[in-house]
């Protein structure tokens, strides 16, 4: 599908026309500027053989000089991913070639981070971001310079000829020089923004596969090696595969066995990372649900803490543990002795209280535990008095039972 700034299309295993759902994993391919579908066919076929579908994005030459064109194309790519992932979230891998990150991919990353305003729903952007499970850089990243577009335009891998016509080379260099003069200040700010965006992906905690060659004149090995080293210093999981003589974006054509093995291993790792991220998200959601449940329970515990005190504010129990009635001990002050070693956990009674009062529990909690909480008005209650021969020597004991009413 053509859009402002380039085109994009699906290549799915179960549908040659690239329409409809049914994907299980997706590679988003950011091709180099002014590339054609035939240039990426071998790579798309490789991903398909590994059971990954492809969303291929071809950006235009002027996207480097006009960020609005790159943003528009990136917005369309994100919208296309949202439609696919809303039906079924899937692992995503971003695979960029040559200047693909400069012309589109870094704008996609800015949209997902909310840095680039496009009017897309933030929740949709978050959905796409959470599905990203890895990054592949093939002959990439290249530095953001004004003559990059001209170099790509006249490079043999683009023109499919070893020696481009000299008039074409002169024209391309002339255009690059003119654009350099007009957009000099903009290039410097875009360059800093570009590298910062690529390094910020370290927060996604996903692996990186970087494929490069020492014989690459457009993507110097030094630049790529510095990029990989910096990612590792930031804590990234980086695998750098280097060849000696393969040309720019020609690593798969010249090293098919090694290239396929590296990509196959990486895509398997990316799928595992996606599953691990899903498990972690599920655990976080479960923990949040548990916290929401424990919150009212904790509040209830705080509200019942007043039961440990009597009406006059005197502590009934000095520890956090409740004693059942059979284990509650009493001691008498002013000369009374205590045998229990847990003296601080006992309830103290005044020595001036009479025997009848000493048998009465203090406070509401004690009355409830001993089941003798009785209102002052006890009319219509059944009361029995039981006297023994010893009752004449001490106060009568009252045996009270609840009303049958």
TrEMBL record:
<dbReference type="Pfam" id="PF05705">
    <property type="entry name" value="DUF829"/>
</dbReference>
<dbReference type="InterPro" id="IPR008547">
    <property type="entry name" value="DUF829_TMEM53"/>
</dbReference>
<protein>
    <recommendedName>
        <fullName>DUF829 domain-containing protein</fullName>
    </recommendedName>
</protein>
<dbReference type="InterPro" id="IPR029058">
    <property type="entry name" value="AB_hydrolase_fold"/>
</dbReference>
């Amino acid at each position: 599908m053509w859009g402002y700034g380039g085109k994009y299309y699906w290549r799915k295993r179960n549908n040659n026309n690239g329409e409809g759902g049914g994907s299980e994993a997706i590679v988003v391919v950011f091709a180099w500027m002014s590339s054609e579908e035939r240039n990426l066919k071998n790579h798309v076929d490789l991903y398909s053989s590994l059971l990954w579908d492809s969303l291929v994005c071809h950006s235009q030459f002027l996207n480097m000089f006009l960020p609005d064109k790159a943003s528009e194309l990136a917005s369309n790519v994100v919208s296309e991913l949202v439609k696919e992932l809303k039906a079924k979230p899937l692992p995503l891998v971003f695979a960029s070639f040559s200047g693909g990150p400069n012309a589109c991919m870094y704008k996609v990353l800015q949209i997902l981070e909310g840095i680039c305003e496009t009017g897309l729903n933030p929740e949709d952007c978050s959905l796409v971001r959470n599905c990203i499970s890895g990054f592949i850089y093939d002959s990439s990243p290249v530095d953001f310079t004004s003559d990059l577009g001209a170099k790509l335009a006249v490079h043999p891998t683009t023109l499919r000829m070893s020696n481009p016509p000299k008039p074409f080379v002169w024209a391309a260099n002339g255009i690059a020089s003119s654009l350099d003069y007009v957009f000099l200040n903009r290039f410097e700010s875009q360059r800093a923004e570009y590298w910062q965006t690529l390094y910020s992906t370290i927060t996604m905690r996903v692996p990186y596969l970087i494929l490069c060659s020492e014989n690459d004149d457009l993507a110097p090995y030094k630049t790529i090696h510095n990029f990989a080293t910096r990612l590792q210093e930031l804590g990234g999981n980086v695998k750098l595969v280097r060849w000696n003589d393969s040309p720019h974006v020609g690593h798969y054509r010249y090293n098919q066995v090694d290239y396929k093995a590296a990509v196959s291993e990486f895509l398997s790792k990316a799928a595992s990372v996606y599953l691990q991220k899903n498990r972690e998200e599920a655990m976080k959601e479960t923990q949040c649900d548990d916290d929401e449940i424990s919150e009212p329970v904790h509040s209830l515990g705080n509200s019942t803490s007043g039961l440990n005190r009597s009406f006059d504010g005197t502590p009934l129990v000095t520890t956090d543990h409740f004693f059942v009635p059979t284990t509650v001990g009493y001691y008498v002050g002013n000369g009374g002795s205590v045998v229990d070693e847990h003296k601080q956990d006992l309830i103290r009674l005044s020595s001036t209280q009479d025997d009848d009062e000493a048998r009465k529990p203090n406070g509401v909690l004690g009355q409830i535990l001993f089941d003798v909480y009785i209102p002052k008005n006890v009319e219509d209650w059944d009361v029995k008095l039981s006297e023994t021969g010893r009752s004449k020597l001490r106060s009568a004991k009252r045996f009270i039972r609840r009303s049958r009413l």
